[in-house]
Design a protein that fits this description.
alpha+beta, globular
């Protein structure tokens, strides 16, 4: 059987000025994951995605001193969470000692996501984390026995 090479995806985007706060990003993300029914089928994954969004948007606001463009794209295999900011400086994972109040955000995102990539852009950078949902349990209503 020939495989369909067309990409089927759904996506959402939102601009988050520094003044909007990170809570707006978390709430917006959680609402869109509910539209995918992940609140019911993969609640732990929703928590991981929301935490990663919080860390990535915080990095854009605090370290890049920039608005964040948050883009969620679901292609039926992976939820791509992309945060764009205006800084051309690529993020670096740094070793934080036990007493440091920060410095663990990228380590956390890397631990939560299935893949994390950073791409320089003409006007800043994109940091994209990929989250794959757990395999769905097949039932007889799926058309297979």
């Amino acid at each position: 059987m020939a495989q369909d090479s067309s990409l089927r995806a759904v996506g959402w985007a939102r601009s988050l000025p520094v003044s909007s706060g990170v809570k707006a990003a978390r709430d917006w993300t959680r609402a869109h994951l509910a539209a995918l029914d992940w609140e019911r089928t993969a609640p732990d994954l929703v928590d991981s995605v929301v935490l990663a969004v919080s860390e990535l948007v915080t990095n854009a606001h605090v370290h890049a001193r920039s608005a964040a463009q948050l883009i969620l794209t679901w292609d039926t295999e992976c939820l791509h969470v992309t945060v764009h900011d205006a800084s051309s400086r690529l993020p670096e994972q740094r070793g934080a000692d036990d007493t440091a109040l920060g410095g663990r955000g990228l380590l956390l995102v890397d631990a939560l996501a299935d893949d994390v990539q950073t791409h320089p852009c003409p006007r800043g950078k994109d940091v994209t984390a990929c989250f794959q949902p757990p395999p769905r349990v097949r039932t007889s209503t799926d058309g297979e026995s």
